[in-house]
Amino acid sequence: MHFFKNVAFGVSMGCTVFVLINLFGSWIFGEIFLEAITADFTHQALGSIIVGLACVLPSLIYQVERLTFLLQTAIHFAISIGTFIVVALSLKWLPTSSLAITLLMLFFSVLLFTLIWLLFYLYNQSEVKKMNKKIDELINKNNIL
């Protein structure tokens, strides 16, 4: 059941990021930003869903306890960014006319992935602290009785 929740979360994340990027892109650059999206909406939306899944599903690697946290993060990062690059290049999300612009866009993509990963990491750390505090309270309560 956990796998299906992750699939649903990956699809929703991909779609949410797709909408936000296009909303802000059209807001900043105008309707021209949406021309590629509207010309091939189905492929563009499916590409976003694939990237969303590629970012969420590899997070299952964190359940493999014999791997170090650094290796888990590297595997998650490689799968996510690797999938993004393949999809981004095939759907022309990254301009290939200039190497400098392509590298700059890749840099911002890595930065965005890192920021999202960091936010999830901090959220999960906060949840762990809450759970540990609740466990300590229950232990102390039972010891008093």
From TrEMBL:
It comes from Lysinibacillus zambalensis. It comes from the Bacteria. Coiled coil: none annotated. It holds the Pfam family DUF3021. InterPro entries: DUF3021. The chain crosses the membrane at residues 7-29, 41-62, 74-94, 100-123. Keywords: Membrane, Transmembrane, Transmembrane helix. This is DUF3021 domain-containing protein. The keyword Signal does not apply.
